[in-house]
Design brief:
17 helices, Beta-Lactamase, alpha+beta, 3 domains, Heat Shock Protein 90, five-stranded mixed beta sheet, single chain, 548 residues
Length: 548
C-alpha cells in the first residue's frame, strides 16, 4: 500500500512539473543541480580535509614522539618503577600542553606507565592493544577509537643512552575532529558558497531560459510537440510525395506517399539523398537557390511531375524540398493540355457544321430537288464514315481516335484541313507505353500545328498526321504549312514557360512532350523553315520495356 501511495505521489509530482512553464522548470532543475553539486562538493571537501588532517596529525605526533624519545631525562628514568615517574610525568605534561596533543604516555618494556594525563593511571599497565610492534623496536602510527572519538597515535621506541637496548616506548596521541565538528567549523564557508552558487545558478538559468525561449520562438515544449504532431499529420495526409534535405544533403522529411512511390521505408531519413534518389537534382537547388517547377522525371519506374524549391530561413538557405505527383495528376494535366477538355468545343463546332448542312438539305427538299439532297447527304456522311472506319481499323486506341476526330472538327472550324495519312498503322500499344502520354504528345503537336497554320494568311491551310511503327520504334510525324519557326527561336521551343502565342500560351506543352519522350528513351526532331511550315518527328522505342 505504501509503495502504491508513493508511486501515485510521484506521478502527481511528475504531472505537476510537466505543466510548469519551461522557464520555471529550467530554473528549478538548474538550482537543484547546483545545490546538489555544492553539497556533494562540500562532502568531498570535508572528506579530503579529514584525510589530510589525519596525515598531518599523524606526522605531527610522530615527530613529537621522536623528540620525547631522545630526551636524556626520559632515557635515564625509564625502568625506575619507584622514582622514575616523578621525573618523567612533569616533562610529558609540559610537552603535551605545549604541543596541544591529548596525551603523551611513556611505558617501559613491561608496559608500566611512567606518564599519563590522568596521574591515577601512572604505574598501571598500558593496554592499547596495538603496542606490540613498538616493543619490537618499530615506530609507527595507528588509529584508535576511544571515548572522545578516533585518535591518531604514534609509537616510538626508547633506547638506552648507548642506543643499543630498547628500554621503553613513547606514545603520543591526539583525537581527530568528527565530520560534524568539521562541518560546524566550516559552516559559514559552506553557507556562503551555497548562497553564491544558488545566486549564480539562478542568474545563469534566467539567461539560459531566455536564450532557449528566443530560439523556440517563445513556445513551450508542449506547444512545440503539438506543432510537430500537426506538421507530421499534415505532411502524411498530403496526396503528394514530399522529400526534403538539409545543407548536408541528408534526407530530413519523407512522407508515406513519397516512400510508396520511391519504394523505400521511413528508415532512409538521415541518409544521403543520392542513396534514396540516384542522380537527384535536389542538391542543385542548394547551389542555385532557384526553384524548378513542372519537371518530369521517373522515380522507381513511375513517371512523376515534380517541383523543387529552396528552404530559406532568415535569408539563409537551410535545405531544399521536392514535391511530386504520380500518374493521376499527370493524366489530369495531360487532358488539360491536349485539348480533351476542348472536345465540347469540337462537338459544338461539329453541331454548327451539321446545322448548316441540314439547312442546305432542307432548302433542297423545299425546292423539290430530292436527288440533289440525297447526293449531298451521301457526300457529307461518306467522308466522315470512311475516316472513322479507317481509324477504328488501323489505330487500336479509342482515346487516340477520339482525340484525332475532335482535332479534325476543331481544325475544320478554324479553317484548317487536318489530314491523316492512310499509311498510318498502330495495331497495338505496348503495355509500358501509357495511352495518356501519347494523347499528350499527339494532342500538343496537333494543337500547335493548327495554331501555327491559322496564323498564316493563305487559302490552303493543312496539317498532316502520320503514325506507325518503323524499325522497332513508334514514329509520330506532324507537319503543317504554317508560319514556321525562326532559327533563333528554334532552340527555345522546348524551354518551360517559352511560348510564341502571347497571353494565350502557357509554354508548357512542348517542354512536357520532350520530358515524356526522354523518359521513354525516345527523341524528337524538328525541321522548320520560317514562312513555309514545321515538321515534328517523334520516335519512341517499343522493344524496351524498361523506362528510365
Amino acid at each position: 500500500m505504501k509503495r502504491k501511495r508513493g508511486s501515485i505521489a510521484l506521478d502527481r509530482l511528475k504531472s505537476w512539473f510537466s505543466h510548469l512553464p519551461i522557464k520555471t522548470r529550467i530554473t528549478i532543475v538548474t538550482s537543484t543541480i547546483i545545490i546538489v553539486a555544492i553539497l556533494s562538493g562540500s562532502v568531498l571537501l570535508i572528506i579530503n580535509i579529514y584525510e589530510a588532517l589525519e596525515v598531518e596529525q599523524g606526522n605531527r605526533v610522530l615527530s613529537i614522539a621522536r623528540t620525547v624519545a631522545q630526551l636524556e631525562t626520559i632515557k635515564q628514568n625509564v625502568g625506575d618503577e619507584e622514582e622514575g615517574w616523578k621525573q618523567i610525568q612533569p616533562i610529558a605534561e609540559r610537552i603535551r600542553l605545549a604541543t596541544d596533543v591529548d596525551y603523551v604516555i611513556i611505558f617501559d618494556m613491561n608496559r608500566i606507565r611512567y606518564s599519563h594525563p590522568i596521574e591515577a593511571n601512572i604505574g598501571t599497565l598500558f593496554q592499547g592493544g596495538d603496542e606490540a610492534p613498538s616493543l619490537g623496536q618499530h615506530e609507527y602510527k595507528s588509529l584508535a577509537k576511544g571515548v572522545q572519538g578516533i585518535a591518531v597515535r604514534a609509537f616510538v621506541p626508547i633506547f638506552d643512552t648507548e642506543g643499543f637496548e630498547q628500554i621503553g616506548v613513547v606514545v603520543v596521541g591526539t583525537v581527530l575532529p568528527t565530520f560534524q565538528q568539521l562541518i560546524l567549523e566550516h559552516k559559514y564557508d559552506f553557507m556562503i558558497s551555497l548562497a553564491l552558487g544558488v545566486i549564480v545558478g539562478l542568474f545563469g538559468a534566467l539567461l539560459l531560459t531566455n536564450s532557449i525561449k528566443k530560439q523556440l520562438l517563445d513556445l513551450e515544449p508542449v506547444e512545440i510537440a503539438r506543432l510537430l504532431e500537426e506538421r507530421e499529420s499534415l505532411i502524411n495526409s498530403i496526396g503528394e510525395g514530399i522529400i526534403a534535405i538539409d545543407r548536408e544533403q541528408k534526407v530530413k522529411v519523407l512522407n508515406p506517399h513519397a516512400a510508396r512511390i520511391l519504394g523505400v521505408s521511413q528508415e532512409v531519413i538521415g541518409c544521403s539523398i543520392e542513396r534514396v534518389i540516384p542522380h537527384s537534382k535536389l542538391p542543385d537547388i542548394l547551389k542555385t537557390t532557384k526553384p524548378q517547377f513542372h519537371q518530369m522525371m521517373v522515380l522507381n519506374k513511375t513517371i512523376v511531375m515534380t517541383n523543387r524549391l529552396p528552404i530559406i530561413v532568415k535569408g539563409k538557405i537551410v535545405g531544399a524540398v521536392a514535391t511530386f505527383q504520380d500518374r493521376t495528376e499527370m493524366i489530369h494535366l495531360a487532358e488539360e493540355l491536349t485539348g480533351i477538355r476542348k472536345f465540347s468545343d469540337a462537338l459544338r463546332a461539329q453541331n454548327h457544321e451539321y446545322m448548316n448542312k441540314l439547312h442546305t438539305i432542307a432548302g433542297l427538299i423545299q425546292l423539290k430537288r430530292y436527288d440533289d439532297a440525297l447526293e449531298l447527304i451521301y457526300s457529307y456522311t461518306e467522308d466522315q464514315e470512311e475516316l472513322t472506319r479507317f481509324l477504328m481499323k488501323h489505330i487500336k486506341s479509342y482515346n487516340i481516335n477520339g482525340l484525332i476526330l475532335g482535332k479534325i472538327s476543331h481544325a475544320k472550324e478554324s479553317g484548317v484541313k487536318l489530314i491523316v495519312d492512310r499509311q498510318s498503322h498502330v495495331p497495338y500499344i505496348p503495355e509500358y507505353l501509357k495511352v495518356q502520354d501519347l494523347i499528350l504528345i499527339i494532342g500538343n503537336l496537333l494543337e500547335n500545328a493548327i495554331d501555327a497554320t491559322v496564323m498564316k494568311n493563305q487559302e490552303e491551310k493543312c496539317v498532316y498526321l502520320k503514325m506507325g511503327y518503323e524499325e522497332g520504334k513508334l514514329v509520330i510525324a506532324v507537319m503543317d504549312n504554317g508560319v514556321g519557326i525562326s532559327k533563333h527561336l528554334k532552340e527555345k521551343i522546348f524551354t518551360t514557360g517559352f511560348t510564341t502565342k502571347g497571353a494565350k500560351g502557357q509554354g508548357i506543352g512542348l517542354a512536357l512532350i520532350q520530358q515524356y519522350i526522354t523518359a521513354y528513351n525516345g527523341d524528337i526532331k524538328v525541321k522548320s523553315k520560317e514562312g513555309k511550315g514545321t515538321t515534328f518527328v517523334v520516335s519512341i522505342p517499343i522493344n524496351k520495356v524498361e523506362i528510365r
